[in-house]
User: Fold this.
Amino acid sequence: MTQYVCPKCCKVQSVPDGVRAVLIKCGACEEALHTFKPAELNDDNIEAFITQSDLPVVVKVEAQWCGPCKMMKPAFDQVAAETDTLLFTTLDIEKAPESAAELGIRGVPAIIFFYGGKEVARDSGLKNIHQIKQWLVQTVQSIS
Assistant:
């Protein structure tokens, strides 16, 4: 069984191995467990996503006023839409100031990769789709 955190209600759901989470709905709220869109993190749900998901969690840290963050959004969203083996999320530093402080965010945009509840890698600055994919491949290889 693989543990997924519902992107809508944050309840942990178990999915049988080999079954794609996109085909499974949350037992609590009926939302698809994997939507191929980044889930929005906040100070209340970030811990559940990072510590309770069996999938690696990729967090794009951003701010609404940040031009490079806006420029990076389509590339990050595209990678999320193409991938079902990673859980993609976003964290707005203005909406989640406590989480941003706990993560030691010094600038945006930034991407943080969590696996097994621990930070594995971090990168900052504007990235295009190829740079995001390359960074993810290198990071996944480092934990394999």
Summary: Residues 36 and 84 are 7 Å apart (CA to CA). Residues 36-143 form a domain with the Glutaredoxin fold (CATH 3.40.30.10). Helices lie at 46-52, 67-82, 97-102, 129-143.
